[in-house]
Amino acid sequence: MRADQVDVSWDPGKAKWLIRIVNGEEVIRRYCSLPKNADEKAVAAAAQKTVQDEGYEADAALVSVRR
Q1: 37, 40, 50, 60: which sits with the fewest CB atoms below 10 Å from its CB?
Q2: Structural domain of residue 28, as residue ranges?
């Protein structure tokens, strides 16, 4: 399956990166333990791996990192 959108943002409550995989009306949320100051490439790569682990496909262009 193909993800429609992948958003990554810092969750200050959990002190982890929150990865949101959107596919239609379904939203899957997963956390990533990279440090807050990790560079955007590392965060995007971790998000891409999480998307694949969940059984979805997503282009790197779909991954949006918000700090």
Answers
A1: 37
A2: 5-66
Pairing of strands 26-32, 63-66: unpaired
At 6-62, the pLDDT tens digits run 999 999 999 999 999 999 999 999 999 999 999 999 999 999 999 999 999 988 899
Residues 51/35, Cβ–Cβ less than 8 Å:
no
Q: Which residues contact 20 (CB under 8 A, 6 or more apart)?
A: 5, 6, 7, 8, 9, 27, 28, 29
pTM, full prediction = 0.93
Cross-strand partners of 65: 8
